[in-house]
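Hi team,

Filling in the usual template for the complex we talked about on Friday. All components are listed, including any nucleic acid strands or ligand strings, so the model treats them as one assembly.

SUBMITTER: L.P.
PURPOSE: interface mapping
COMPONENTS: three
RESIDUES: 857
SEQUENCES:
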Amino acid sequence: MRSTTRHMPLPAGSITKSLVSRDLAFVAAGFVALAIVMKMHWAIDFMIFCIFVLSYDLLYGYMGHLSFGHMLYFGAGAYGSAIWLAHVNANPFLAIMAGLFAGALLSSFLGLIALQTHGASFALINMAFNEIGFFLIHSALSDYTYGEDGLSCTAGKLFGFINFYNERHSFIFVLVLLLLVFWLLRTLTVSPFGVLVRSIKEDENRVKFLGYNTMTYKWITFVSASILAALAGGMFTMIQGFVSPITISPFGNVDVIFAVLIGGAGNLYGALIGGVAFMLIKNFLPVLIPELEKLVPFQVPQWEMWLGIVLLVTVFALRKGLVGFVRQKWQHRRQVGVVS
Amino acid sequence: MLEVKGIDVSYGHARVVHDLNLRLDRGEMVFIVGRNGAGKTTLLKTVAGLLRPVKGTITFQDKEIHGLPAEKLARRGFRFVAQEKKVFSSLTVRSNIELAAHGAGEDLDTALKKATSIYPDLSRFMDKKAGGLSGGQREILLIGRALIGEPKILLIDEPTEGLAVIVIEDIFRILREMKEKVSAVIVEQNLSVVSRLADRIYIMKEGKIIKEFANKAEIADITELERYL
Amino acid sequence: MIETIAYGCTIGAILYFFSIGLAITFGTMHIINFAHGTVYALGAYLFVTFLSLMGGVFPLALAASIAAMLPVAYVIERFVIRRLYGESMDYAMIATYGVLLIGTELTKMVWGTTPQPINDPVGISLSLVGVYLSLYRIIVVASAIALFFALRAFFNRSVVGRIVVAALEDNEGVRCLGIDVNRYFSIVFVLGSSLAVLGGVLYAPISTVDPYMGFDILLLAFAVVIVGGMGNLNGTFFSALLLGMVMAITGRYWSQAAHAMVFMVMAIVLVKDSLFRTIRRLFGIRTA
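RESULT (copied from the run log):
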């Protein structure tokens, strides 16, 4: 399997605190700018999606395991929280915990099964689990989930003062969460654990021969990625106040795969860029298309077609995503001596 | 006839063959000898067109051939016999030869005659599934397949590996029959076979050719060869 | 119950037509081809159009649909699949998924999103073992069985078939005989795609034709291929029938669970080895 080219990981500890702080500040500034340019609630949606993309990047980008069923855990988090709010109490902290717990429980068990497989089988078995999950939410457990109609839920104030229905509160909270996740993954991926996970992506057998039980590492990574996805799902519920089966729909996996690819797999910044890029396309293309249709005499294809085209283009031309593309240009300029 | 100049070949991230030079003249039977992991198979596969060199050139009859795919080279007369003795096990022996004939553009009867001429016993197994053959029989089938059509260069990877002594003698006989009729580059670890058949010997170590033996007397002296391994 | 089994056989037959192409592409090129769903759906839609254009003559419309889809399959093979040879499986899946999306959108653009119902072209029911069975569905199942034997003959007796079988086992060996393996794989790809079109057309009168039918059957087909053994073409037939049955029987008692049940079977098959190991370990039975 091809690996993305990356600079050699620095040993743990040599990433100075200032570098990390710089990154975090950068990301924060980026999203604040976004919120200023667009409406704040767009930015919040973008950030929630970015958390989801980050979680997927851990699984696919860093560990190299493509899954067509990660939405299951987003949905688990979303529905876990929603069901708690709707049927137990309005405490948002407990609700989010419920969502995370659902994600953790599910992924611990399903991960044990799925990680027995590799490559295409792994991708497909996760898709199968996603489908089963969708079926459960949509039909089997519709008494609790209200199936197709969706579930409305209201959350109280978190820690007594954070109000999810206040845009400014939500924005700051989700931003802090995003930065936390970013920092967490940053630390994880340069740690010895992270290096090991990346090595598993390169050549699992070699890691096994070195004496490591790769299954343990894979499982931990899988569960972590799923918990983070559930976190994104839980936040979705808090902000929206409503969940529907679309949050667990297997079709949603394309979105996040696309985001990771277009940004550059295995790169945290890439995940963020990809996430933002995707959300921009998803939200603004449908607005553009009717405008375009006014201009041209024929029917303009809907946005799914563009998504398909971009997927093809990314695989054949922009394999390393935007970040990789930019990096290559940068390195090339360095080599040619333009940049000192 | 065949010239390999300064080739580097990578396998994944590892550079397996370094700056290697090799020569094969028409009618010669050249052997490559070396320990496991020296890069001999990689070298052979590169000449056969299954791998591409990262650097360097390979010319055949004054034309550059490096980078051409295996099927094109096969049609130009290259025949590669792999180390694992893989035959088309779910097909019969006859069908194995039939595919070789199809690829070489030769008619089936001529092909079958050629195969049985090097090893008459093969006719007994014609309708047996190739997967049921013993190691030695497989190697003979593979060499038979390689001789279909108009082979110009045989590239054989460890023909006697894993075979019993009696069978090795069979292979030895077949190879000796082929000497001077076909040019060949053969990777082989059995020094007895090597020293009795070779026109020239290359010793390969860690991806490089470290010694070439062209002198008949030197080649006949196995202990001398062993010194370089 | 007999009707359920008959229905299961019919679904199994359709699954077989569709899955065989997927199994071949995976066995030969190690590519999971999501675009297979597109040829299926597009073929079915073309059939609907041809049917009305040709005055409702089923076989004519069928032939026309297959003929019309041959160039489409060729284009997909030439410009997408061929570029994915030797690539990592992930990219193959993503790229072909892109084709699927594009194809689905094209279908929606041309034909709209409302499902198109087709009537039973034969319209005769036979009385067999005490129940009325649609003759059309019997024909479908019979065709699948005929296909099974035809494919066996193809792979065992024809030169092309033997080349593909040999290449499945030893790709390099075939190439070193001077045979352009990729060209034969392309031929088999188009063959497999045509079978998918056939499946789509045959399925049209049984259910409705909608733009997302490709997606639906794809997942089921993956299950069929996995349960049958990836690359095992004979196994595909039996697993298609089996899973068709699973769907029909499950559907009888709990209609929405039909798909989910298929995936449960697939999941079990995927992990059966480690499942058995775990069970043995749990019960203290020593493994060899």
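MY TAKE: The first helix of chain C runs from residue 2 to 29. Residues 2-257 of chain C form a domain with the ABC transporter involved in vitamin B12 uptake, BtuC fold (CATH 1.10.3470).

Thanks, L.
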